[in-house]
């Protein structure tokens, strides 16, 4: 049962009215054990708390100097069990990788092995403080150092910064190192080139670091237009930012040629490594001429993500940029003791551009990622890439007969399959397919990204899904796509079974209601 409902809040849908359910309406709005849940403000009472406090003597002297609150604070109260239930019910309306397939392209929503969790929870890792004396956290420092070493080996790059806290943060770290390297030479360059298929964080990062961003077009095959890029290179170009494999799910075959041209023009090559899952153990970005690349530990190395955190985005650096990497970094002395270099030391490394964060990075993500690497081994990581690519191609080839696949003729895809809504009829679009998939029990794929494909649907199964799970998804995906091809009007109202039906996403983005307004009584 729900708590008493004072504000007139009603469940949005009663079961019989929508014409889609056969059962009778319930008085609570609950559907069996799927429980409706009002807002805290709608169920809370001002006079309730979860703890018993002694009564306050109103005449007792205070030391607040006249600053005592004169009116109620306006927070609502719940008992402890009500509080626990409120948040648990909300959590059950959420969807995560532990509930089902999560084909969100470019996000690499892979299974997080439970072994990772076990190791991350060891008290020696979980209960330490960033300011603990370094001799008391030698094991943790060794984890940071070892993980950094794995990242350097896997990418073929000599330097690494462990502190960036997500992919976008890593991009900023890389671009700031590039800016520092140019400035150290007294070379004031102003432009960063970004392909038009890039993730939005790439141009945002360059702009945030005070560069002017210019687009590089894509070829009809979905890759960077090398001729256009070369034509634009010049003494004002500080760097290019290229994602490889790119966001169309394709390997940039001419990356080495691009990198050589950029270097010849005095620029640096930033590689967005968010899609490293497709090539880990197979390709070393250092061999392709990359100067800086972030690695999303929360994507490739399976640490859990979504819902805003936590992430971790270490950056690997070439010989040219390594001296400018941010502080701090871990070193080991001749006796084998690990220590943090916290201050700039030009003799040891060079003119670091400064710091990205107060401390050292995401310890919990580091332990999970290293556990993942050690349990897979080098051969296992290579198989990760192979299986991720195989799974994506299986989906591409299982759908291309009914769904527009703009780059299917360019050959096999990498870790994700890209489709468009070109052939849908009756005004139906990608959004309707995404909503239809929710009714089928699937988190939708990434939609409307990359921008170079009309109504893009970017599907990334990752290597952790079984063939049976992928076959089930393909069956559901095909069924929904067939409805879109046939112009099925009902699909425009989907989802029918989600707790809140179809939301007005434009309104939610433009005019979000971020605080609760007391309804007029
Ligand atoms: C995820 C992603 C990013 C950003 O990474 P965050 O960890 O979300 O900041 C950048 N580029 C690409 C291609 C991505 O997929």
TrEMBL record:
Molecular-function annotations in GO: glycine dehydrogenase (decarboxylating) activity
Signal peptide bounds: none
InterPro entries referenced in this protein's UniProt entry, alphabetically: Aminotrans_V_dom, GDC-P_C, GDC_P, PyrdxlP-dep_Trfase, PyrdxlP-dep_Trfase_major, PyrdxlP-dep_Trfase_small
Keyword DNA repair assigned: no
EC supergroup of this enzyme: oxidoreductase
Keyword Cell inner membrane applies: no
Annotated EC: 1.4.4.2
Domain of life: Bacteria
Reactions catalysed according to its record: N(6)-[(R)-lipoyl]-L-lysyl-[glycine-cleavage complex H protein] + glycine + H(+) = N(6)-[(R)-S(8)-aminomethyldihydrolipoyl]-L-lysyl-[glycine-cleavage complex H protein] + CO2
Keywords: Oxidoreductase, Pyridoxal phosphate
Xref: SUPFAM superfamilies: PLP-dependent transferases
Residue ranges occupied by any Aminotransferase class V domain in the UniProt entry: 185-306
Domain Glycine dehydrogenase C-terminal positions: 386-482
Region named Disordered: 1-24
Function according to Swiss-Prot or TrEMBL: The glycine cleavage system catalyzes the degradation of glycine. The P protein binds the alpha-amino group of glycine through its pyridoxal phosphate cofactor; CO(2) is released and the remaining methylamine moiety is then transferred to the lipoamide cofactor of the H protein.
Protein name: glycine dehydrogenase (aminomethyl-transferring)
Protein's gene: gcvPB
